[in-house]
Amino acid sequence: TDPALIRNFCIIAHIDHGKSTLADRMLQLTGVVEQRQMRAQYLDRMDIERERGITIKSQAVRLPWAPTKDEGGEPATHILNMIDTPGHVDFTYEVSRSLAACEGCVLLVDAAQGIEAQTLANLYLAMEHDLTIIPVLNKIDLPAAQPEKFAAELAHLIGCDPSDVLKVSAKTGEGVAELLDRVVKLVPAPVGVYDAPARAMIFDSVYDAYRGVVTYVKVVDGTLSRRERIRMMSTGAAHELLEIGTNSPEMTPADGLSVGEVGYLITGVKDVRQSKVGDTITQVSGGAQEPLGGYKDPKPMVFSGLYPLDGSDYPELREALDKLQLNDAALVYEPETSAALGFGFRVGFLGLLHLEVIRERLEREFNLDLIATAPNVVYRVEMEDGTEHTVTNPSEFPVGKIDTVHEPVVRGTILAPSEFIGAIMELCQNRRGVLLGMDYLSEDRVEIRYTLPLAEVVFDFFDQLKSKTRGYASLDYEPTGEQTSELVKVDILLHGDKVDAFSAITHKDKAYAYGVRLVAKLRELIPRQNFEVPIQAAIGSRVIARETVRAIRKDVLAKCYGGDISRKRKLLEKQKEGKKRMKMVGSVEVPQDAFIAVLSSD
Ligand code: GTP
């Protein structure tokens, strides 16, 4: 295809603002999906995505479109490549790669809701990539729509005239043809060097059980052809290009892809880590020397221990993680043992949603019952003797002469109605936040920016924010580096033995509160034993909180008043049964439920 006829664009939208519905309308209108095949949200394939209404993996679809004459576009049939971007904060890097494959984007905003924090974050990303932005209000068919108010807000934000904001209904299809016309007219055609060695950027990579890894690329320079040998520039690994083609929306093989084109390729690799998002592909012979810029290795930001509820499920858990990793280059894990929870894995995630999605998939698709330890971030600890430790598990926080502790920080952006400013600032202040700035988007909506320790954000921050703003606030955050902080490790001891699963790293001013809370909670949950059980919270050897579970005499047979021997046996068996769900921590029996209760609530 002549690059002059290609338009690569994406849709930036908040969850539920109608991106999938709009994509469906575009598929229909351009004739790539026939009416009778149409089902809602054609592009969202994963079940979990459908149910939760979130788009996790991006894809690209090729739409032929001949613009209407009176919109001023040339009437020739153009190729519009719609590149789907993941919507959530955890996937910022993937979003940035999808944006890098585009020349323009549709900023889609619900006409009854206005812009949200995530949309704003992605809009800023799009602006950084110099994309042409087409502002669009959706759902104008809704009675609650306030198109004038939000058109003004959008215009103010991106610096255009309110009359430039297109108003559509993805539901009824109103305005969608005009939108496609506008994409042709306003989004620049891709530019690249035709006679150069090929350079293609990977913006997504998906594992398919039948075909192996399907890699989505945008060709920037030159041509990639079927059957030639290609090289991944970050690793130097070479592969044969078994198949290359476009999605419209099913995979359609082609002889090759050249400048500006977007499509998929298959090399037979079985693991997405061999075909990494952001990497550059070139030919093996006469290939390019310089990769395209912007490649980054995915870096896990949040860790949690995952343990099977039933210890015998451990091999299944390993197998399930192995399978998920085929499709998720950002998922890392290694085996870990916990005195309290047994054998499991320490798993690294990009963020909280990523964690939640993986947990849910393990439980749902692989039928595993899991216990997850409280999520923690990665700390860098410098010792006085000059050595350095990277801590991904609080129980491994070093003892001895610590010089400085570094923790990751994020830049958080919160959008909310202005009546909640006080509540939001209070929350952020409590979470060790530092105010960066505040802007009014319109007279009653405000954007508040804070630097926050990631550790404070992963710990129920979002839930708190929602409850303090009656659900109106939206949040986005991006990692911005690290800071040194006065952090300490709090250990919880049962009868003198450390319960590793409850060790936590907290700011020194919050250590006491954490200790008191956990100790009190455990006291409620741990049944009386034959001896007295002290429950303590300690920093190093200094105890900061203590409760005691009193001893009882446990004599089940006493209830039977002699006599009936079969009844006695039954009782004994029952007691044995009950013990199975107990874990021994040192000399103390703790019901597994207690661990789950402590780990799951806040
Ligand atoms: P994610 O995939 O979760 O990011 O959501 P999305 O942005 O793709 O939203 P989706 O298309 O799933 O739409 C969310 C809801 O809004 C659905 O119930 C749609 O039926 C509804 N919706 C989308 N567009 C319109 C519209 O123009 N008018 C009305 N009334 N409802 C719409």
From TrEMBL:
GO MF annotation, one: GTP binding
Alphabetized SUPFAM superfamilies for the sequence: EF-G C-terminal domain-like, P-loop containing nucleoside triphosphate hydrolases, Translation proteins
Signal peptide segment: none
Listed EC numbers: 3.6.5.n1
Subcellular location: Cell membrane
Domain Tr-type G: 4-191
A Pfam entry, by short name: LepA_C
Record-listed GTP binding positions: 16-21, 138-141
Known catalytic reactions: GTP + H2O = GDP + phosphate + H(+)
Stated family: Belongs to the TRAFAC class translation factor GTPase superfamily. Classic translation factor GTPase family. LepA subfamily.
Reported function: Required for accurate and efficient protein synthesis under certain stress conditions. May act as a fidelity factor of the translation reaction, by catalyzing a one-codon backward translocation of tRNAs on improperly translocated ribosomes. Back-translocation proceeds from a post-translocation (POST) complex to a pre-translocation (PRE) complex, thus giving elongation factor G a second chance to translocate the tRNAs correctly. Binds to ribosomes in a GTP-dependent manner.
Name listed for the protein in its UniProt record: Elongation factor 4
